[in-house]
Amino acid sequence: MISRIGKTFKELKNKGRKAFIPYIMAGDPSLDKTKEVVLLFEECGADIVELGVPFSDPLADGPTIQRASERALKNGVTLRKAISLVKDIRQMTQIPIVLMTYFNPVFKYGVENFIKDAKIAGVDGVIIPDLPPDEAEDFIKLSREAALDTIFLLAPTSTEDRIKKVIKASKGFIYYISVTGITGTTLLLDGSMEVLISKIKRYTDKPVAVGFGVSTPEEASAVARVSDGVIVGSAIVKKLYESPDELRRYILSLREAIK
Amino acid sequence: MPALKELEEAFFYSKKDRDFQRKLEQLQKTYIGRPTPLYFASRLTEHLSGAKIYLKREDLAHTGAHKINNAVGQVLIAKNIGKKRVIAETGAGQHGVATATAAALAGLECEIYMGSEDMKRQALNVFRMRLLGAKVTEVATGSRTLKDAINEALRDWTTNVLSTHYVLGTVFGPHPFPLMVRDFQSVIGRETKRQIIDAEGGLPDYLIACVGGGSNAMGLFYEFLNEDVKMIGVEAGGKGIETGEHAARFAGGSIGVFQGCMSYLLQDDDGNVLGTHSVSAGLDYASIGPEHPYLRDTGRVRYTYATDDEALSAFELLSRTEGIIPALESAHALAEVVKLAPGLSKDEVIVVNLSGRGDKDVQHVARIKGIYL
Fold first, then answer.
1. What is the model's pTM?
2. Does B89 qualify as catalytic in the annotation?
3. Smallest Cβ distance to A104: which of B147, B161, B258?
4. Nearest C-alpha of chain A: how many angstroms from B142?
5. Rounded mean pLDDT of chain B?
6. DSSP character string of A107-170
7. Res B219: pLDDT
8. Which of A92, B80, B105, B204 has the highest local Cβ count within 10 Å?
9. Chain B residues touching residue A57 (CB < 8 angstroms)
């Protein structure tokens, strides 16, 4: 059966459009606010929502999301609470939701229980940036059984062997990191991204969404032209923290740019 | 990940590469000052009136701790694979100083990440690193200590992976680091074996070492794993396990996955990593090199802990009885000797790894005693 994420990409493809995937950290500044922002994302035309789970040591994240993670942890937000939040949000919307969490909270929760609870709550897919596919056999197998999408990451430095592994392990979409490094890094739009994405596309027709470093509508538009979807994280988290009043207009401008 | 693969290949190549091995041996001899002495601590032995106590004097290695053994090895590999820059994390500053030293020796650019809390505690080492030409970058996120410095170094490495090698300072992290660091530190145990046979005509009864990440312990133990020698690893008991303020992963932790490896970890019920405490910055870390749980679970090595107070008292004891000021890290191993030796017979032999010298801790200890220098 095709997943909700798969269906979203398919419909977009038929319309010749690209996915807009905004990110938000669960519990920053509060779980109620997160719910409100997820609904705002949908209202502004987002296709999929990426929901961050706070962690004490967010290795793949830059300073903006690190600080959001610290704030959320201070508010007592945990993986368990993030899953409950999804359950709560599901009363209001059916927009596909992808959880981004580090592996240790999942490990401590118990991989099997996590997948079960996430699925019941209405989570559609999971990204675990510090779990490479070689180490993810159980996680992939159990997720397939539960029909939960597993999204793995590729970087500009990924070898051919790696690309093939990630393609095989990924379901829903493939997350292409636009730059080597961490979230919120400056994006380089020099044409190399197009080359690398077409390299991935040689082996698969699974959708490829690009994240890490996209912050302006111009960048989003450029990235949309060469990929199947655009993920915007740090810039949204920053806007929500520094000038929440401008968030709606900013989200709309991104949506407008991603065609 | 391609970087780990490249590193693994370069490391295995270096083991067979005669030029590399010759160069490493030459530097160990003429630059690091190896072999370091194995010293019979007669006054300490007399004081405790039990087993004979020998100290493996890693404190006499260049830069004052065993950390240089690994730093020089990794920097040589980095240079061989064409890296222009090395980075490292540091807690107490010893590994940062060792890496900055090795980078200066090899003519590589060097950046050291250090938690802002640790920078305050170890201001002297910060200045030493800068003197050696390294850039010291403050890490002001998370708990602002060693684990956060590792996070930041890993972030740097993923960003600058093409030009940069990450000199991880202990037997932790993703493969091949635990293996490679053990390999560079195992010179400690190889020398000790020769030296104790020369001195005593046989193997020791006990080996004792402190365990933060666990590299000095692995370095001493590895050569003896298949011998009939008892081994004890000593973690930081901080203010006591019951207070929650400690870094005793075996006594207070559970299995977790952190910074690229699975091991014992001090964590809460939701899998977030807990803050740790130890009087010694070098042992103040939430996880432990993954080979130690293996050695513990197979019963090969016994692990215990020493509290801040026990370590401080051993710190003073060695200073007074032997004229050797140990690093606070090593003082944890000595605290176990103080407990163990009196109950053993006079013909039994203990070798304790004196992994570093205490100059860096003098100010800190003075402050604890209420003396402001």
1. 0.95
2. yes
3. B258
4. 7
5. 96
6. HHH-HHHHHHHHHHHT--EEE-TT--GGG-HHHHHHHHHHT-EEE-EE-TT--HHHHHHHHHH-
7. 98
8. B204
9. 142, 147-148, 151, 258-259, 273
